[in-house]
Design brief:
This protein is of the alpha/beta class. The protein has one domain. Helices cover 16% and strands 31% of the residues. Strands 6-5-2-3-4-1-7 form a 7-stranded mixed sheet. Strand 2 and strand 3 form a beta hairpin.
Length: 148
Amino acid sequence: MTKDNLRYFPQRFTFILNPYKDTRLSSCPKCRRLTHMRKFALLIHIEKFGFLTLGKTCRYCSPCELIMAHQDELEDELVHVFENQSPEIIGNPYLVFGTVDIKWWKQSLGTSGESLSQLLEHVTQFKSVLDLKMTGGWQPEKKPRPVK
């Protein structure tokens, strides 16, 4: 892709993909407020396949504009999409690129053959993608206690 062909997408939302199966994000890791469920049309690029728009209900923090998806749930849905049509795609690396305008996505569900250029007109790229790192359990104190 040449520099002239590069497309600049509007940026919105921050995204976290939670890799921990035993940890669910009911509160925002940034501001600690309770999150709520919201449906997004996630634009996912899958290696050796291309782009896929997947409707996914994710945890969402409105003040932070933070979308939180659980990796195991997302991968289960990707398996469900490809298990009958293209099982060789299952397990390929993927990247959650951004979101697609939900109204446009719902309208395009009934039609066939929406072009990539039409899709890209409705894409919003993530401002940033955060890594979720869990810490916990028994840890040494940060400051040693004074000896009396």
